[in-house]
Write a structure and sequence with these properties.
The chain has 10 helices and 2 strands. The protein is mostly helical. The protein has one domain. It has a two-stranded antiparallel ribbon. The longest helix has 61 residues. The protein is rod-shaped, with a radius of gyration of 29 Å. The relative contact order is 0.14.
């Protein structure tokens, strides 16, 4: 009977990569707190009675103050959609800070390109331990993937049961599993920024339409003459357009931050791909 070579699955130990523990609390707590903060800002700062010539004494949830003294307090008259838009703006700020801190940590210390070149140099000299030391210094997502691959790389150098092709496949599998654990952490919560980019403008348009409806309703019921009708229409339109301005501004900021973060993630992803290529090509050329 002909001898058969052991397969990589049977001879290679299970992956050493461990799933990362992460809290999802910010994903559902932050939107709630941001909406509440948006309402409080609208109700107690923009709706401060001292900012109006005719403050309302009733209606705690939505007092109908009249004749704002300045443009800041005039935003209050944009309606109940305004606190929602302010809450969405706070969401953009919160998730931008959260993504910035996460991606900054994922980038690690120093240049990713320099880190990969150092690892390539050590591997060319068959010094895997020095390459692992570089991973400990870099401490980013690329270094985490590279470290997992290097551990399997080092294990394969002393493995006599598998042929070169199987060893390369084992290293590649380890890199792929480490990558599968790193990338979700980088992309987490970006969905909020991408959603606000499109939904923010639509919600602002809803507020504008509601404001226009109120304006034309007041115009139709006004018995003070043509001059007062024109004034009521102009004031109503200007107030309704505050919704559009807030929505467009929030959506624009969300789009900018989303593009910034995806660009950073793309650079990390490219570094991870280059790391996997470096490990497999180095092993294939040095340990034939």
């Amino acid at each position: 009977m002909a001898d058969t070579k052991p397969t990589a699955a049977a001879s290679v130990k299970a992956t050493s990569v461990q799933a990362k523990k992460s809290s999802n609390a910010i994903s559902w707590l932050a939107p709630i707190f941001c909406i509440i903060a948006g309402y409080c800002f609208w109700r107690f700062i923009l709706g401060n009675p001292n900012g109006f010539n005719i403050p309302a004494k009733e209606g705690w949830f939505w007092p109908e103050h009249k004749e704002p003294k300045d443009a800041l307090h005039r935003i209050y008259e944009g309606g109940i959609i305004v606190p929602l838009l302010i809450g969405m703006f706070f969401m953009v700020v919160v998730f931008s800070i959260e993504r910035f801190l996460t991606i900054r940590k994922a980038l690690g210390n120093g240049s990713i390109a320099d880190f990969i070149r150092k690892v390539q140099y050590h591997l060319a000299n068959r010094n895997v331990d020095a390459a692992l030391s570089e991973c400990d210094k870099q401490r980013g997502s690329v270094a985490n993937v590279m470290r997992a691959g290097l551990r399997r790389y080092k294990e394969m150098t002393s493995n006599s049961e598998l042929d070169t092709e199987q060893k390369v496949l084992a290293i590649q599998k380890e890199v792929e599993e480490a990558t599968a654990l790193e990338l979700p952490m980088l992309q987490k919560n970006l969905v909020f920024l991408s959603t606000i980019t499109s939904v923010g403008t639509l919600i602002a348009l809803l507020g504008t339409v509601m404001g226009m409806i109120r304006s034309f309703s007041a115009l139709g019921s006004d018995d003070g003459g043509g001059g007062s009708n024109a004034a009521a229409l102009a004031i109503g339109i200007s107030e309704a357009l505050y919704n559009t301005a807030l929505g467009i501004g929030t959506s624009a900021l969300a789009m900018i931050m989303y593009n910034v973060f995806t660009t950073k993630i793309d650079s990390i992803t490219y570094g991870i791909d280059e790391s996997g290529f470096t490990l497999t090509q180095s092993f294939a050329s040095l340990y034939k």
